[in-house]
TrEMBL record:
Keywords: Membrane, Transmembrane, Transmembrane helix. One of its GO terms (cellular component) is plasma membrane. It holds the Pfam family DUF308. The chain crosses the membrane at residues 17-37, 43-62, 74-92, 98-121, 128-148, 160-180. The keyword Magnesium does not apply. InterPro entries: Acid_resist_chaperone_HdeD, DUF308_memb. This is HdeD family acid-resistance protein.
Length: 185
């Protein structure tokens, strides 16, 4: 009975690998945008980073709703919610100062990293689970980097660190998508 359920879930996920790819591409694009922003003022970078994080969170939550049968569903929903709420907070508070924004971004990536590692542990019986672990560890490293490097310099902005973390997360989801595509249901 358990084997049949596992096979049904595997077949369903195999057929929906494209949703993971779309999420990965969205996160990677968000990362590129976030890395490209340091040339802009702190205000603009904060506003755009808030929008980028919010959009990434929305896409992540919508994508996970498309694959509810996936064992990482709830963790993906939680991670998306953290990104959405964090992005909204950053967007609506761009004038609070660079220190506060940096700490808020560090907090968002701390929670996102913890949830991403928890997601990896939840789906560790699936091929490619380690990509989620790597993504979570990079988010935790981004959080620590932001918290330890205050105040930041023009070369080393929250947008750059956040962008790198989003790029790695995007790569992780693309790798998972391609693993699901190659897997036999």
């Amino acid at each position: 009975m358990g084997g049949t359920d596992h096979q049904r879930r595997a077949a369903s996920l195999h057929s929906k690998w494209g949703w993971f790819l779309v999420l990965g591409l969205t996160l990677a694009l968000a990362g590129v945008l976030a890395v490209a922003l340091p040339a802009v003022s702190t205000f603009a970078a904060s506003v755009v980073l808030g929008i980028v994080l919010s959009l990434a969170g929305i896409v992540k939550m919508v994508q996970s709703l498309r694959v509810k049968e996936w064992s990482g569903f709830i963790w993906q929903e939680l991670t998306g919610a953290v990104e959405l709420v964090g992005g909204i907070l950053i967007y609506f508070n761009p004038f609070k100062g660079a220190l506060a924004i940096t700490l808020l971004i560090a907090l968002v990536f701390l929670v996102q990293g913890i949830l991403q590692v928890a997601l990896a542990l939840r789906v560790r019986d699936q091929d490619g689970w380690q990509w989620f672990a790597i993504s979570g560890l990079v988010a935790l490293a981004a959080s620590a980097t932001l918290a330890l490097k205050l105040p930041f310099t023009s070369i080393y902005t929250p947008g750059t660190v956040a962008g790198i973390s989003l790029l790695v997360a995007g790569g992780a989801y693309m790798a998972i998508a391609l693993t699901m595509r190659r897997a036999r249901p």
